[in-house]
Amino acid sequence: MSLPETKRVNSAMLQNCIGEPVRFIGEFKSRQDTMATFLSSDKGLVTVAMNENSLYGTKFVEVIGNVNPDRSIAEWTSSNFGDDFDMETYDAMIVKAQKFPSVF
């Protein structure tokens, strides 16, 4: 599956990305039916509408999908990112990437 270009986002950035494809990394917190909750790099909670192939096997997961009007993410695909990921550094990087997109 070929994916479109995506922005890396945290929870606060989702409101500016309604209807757009995004790339999100979060700490998996819980699942209820087909909805998953993640803790974002900026400490906000993000809801993901999982696809039928979702297998979150590690503490940190990258989700690529489209932002819904309620700021949840409709997952297209996901990747496990392991159990040790520096969310603070990652958040600083995505904030810089928004300010200086030509560098990233």
From TrEMBL:
<dbReference type="GO" id="GO:0035861">
    <property type="term" value="C:site of double-strand break"/>
</dbReference>
<dbReference type="GO" id="GO:0005662">
    <property type="term" value="C:DNA replication factor A complex"/>
</dbReference>
<dbReference type="GO" id="GO:0003697">
    <property type="term" value="F:single-stranded DNA binding"/>
</dbReference>
<dbReference type="InterPro" id="IPR012340">
    <property type="entry name" value="NA-bd_OB-fold"/>
</dbReference>
<comment type="similarity">
    <text>Belongs to the replication factor A protein 3 family.</text>
</comment>
<dbReference type="GO" id="GO:0006284">
    <property type="term" value="P:base-excision repair"/>
</dbReference>
<dbReference type="GO" id="GO:0006289">
    <property type="term" value="P:nucleotide-excision repair"/>
</dbReference>
<dbReference type="InterPro" id="IPR013970">
    <property type="entry name" value="Rfa2"/>
</dbReference>
<keyword id="KW-0539">Nucleus</keyword>
<dbReference type="GO" id="GO:0003684">
    <property type="term" value="F:damaged DNA binding"/>
</dbReference>
<dbReference type="Pfam" id="PF08661">
    <property type="entry name" value="Rep_fac-A_3"/>
</dbReference>
<dbReference type="GO" id="GO:0000724">
    <property type="term" value="P:double-strand break repair via homologous recombination"/>
</dbReference>
<dbReference type="GO" id="GO:0006260">
    <property type="term" value="P:DNA replication"/>
</dbReference>
<dbReference type="GO" id="GO:0006298">
    <property type="term" value="P:mismatch repair"/>
</dbReference>
<protein>
    <recommendedName>
        <fullName>Replication factor A protein 3</fullName>
    </recommendedName>
</protein>
